[in-house]
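U., I forgot to send this yesterday:
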Amino acid sequence: MYALADCNNFFVSCERVFRPDLERRPVIVLSGNDGCVVSRSNEAKALGIKMGVPLYQIRTIVEQAGVTCFSSNFALYGDLSDRVMSIIRQHTSHFEQYSIDECFFHIDHIPSDRQKAYCEQLVRDIRRGVGIPVSIGIASSKTLAKVASKYAKKYSGYHGVCEIRTDEQRVKALHDFEIGDVWGIGRRAKAKLTAAGITTALQFAERSDAFARNMLHKPGLLIWQELRGQDVIDITDLPMKQSITTSRTFASAISDRTLLEEQIADFCARCARQLRMQHSVCQQLFVYAHTSAFRADMEQHYLSEIVNLPVATANSQELITYALAALRRAYRAGVQYKKAGVVLMKIIPENAVVPDLFDTKDRTKDNRLQRVLDHIDDRHGKRTILFGSQLPSSDSAVVYKNDHKSPLYTTDIRDVITVKAG
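Result:
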């Protein structure tokens, strides 16, 4: 049996760990540059605040309802995620982290009649040890475990843990489960299934395997099998991203080339890290920056450069070097750039790299150094070590807007909470 642990409203929950006064009050967390809502407390959801809505569109609701806003604090969220995952790892020999706030783990070493109680205790241990509320779903497949975890999160009567063990429980759970909420069913797949009269997970699961394959090809067949209780999806077999992007709209437009290079280098390093995490490399990168289309009074310019790499790579330093060279070729002095980004393309598995006969780089040495840098970041926190081109300048503060950022309670000694005894 699989268990899927999912942290409830994770970013909001992280902020509440050090702000217990915000329990049962509406709270939202904003995306980079304080743009859109990326996490909501249940109270904020009850106010009608939607995921992804821009802050300016809900300003009236925020002010009238007293909604507390936070800028994204990924250093804090990443550290608390590591603490939650470390507790779960102690309870299983098979652990697969799926995202910053979700992981799958085996519980077959626990007798079946004690698995729910065991996971309920784990939920309490995580809440007591880290302060994060967690919901756990138990089932024979990963997809059904995801379904169960959503019910555990939605209904308090489950005490944080829902299990789908019998076929009767499976049918009941899928009967009212919307097809668009099924793991792996995206917007396009949902539209195709809805057009075919499929609106619930049970309706899809009760169709034939040929129907599933014809509608959604092999991925759809795997989902169909999982909804019927078969364990066929391996996280490591999920398709790798075909492109990886990091971009940002700046709070203040940038005309200084050095400051723009700093942002591009940082975007490139972030993309490269994602590339290495999925054990892949890229053969092409795209660098762009452009002015605001809403400022007709300013000179307009769209900077874009595509670089075909001589040898596919995921090495941060190498990708940054190519990205900055591309930026310098296309940069126009005096232009006010409002948004910039880096896209890594033509992604292939790392074991499919074709060596270049004329390549002069010592890639074994470079890759060994990159692994050391990644290990240091994993152990001591992201951005512990930066390349020189990423180092923030004195003007960096004007680039991003984070007016509501909380302290780095667990990763910066200067922000550690102090308690005074009276």
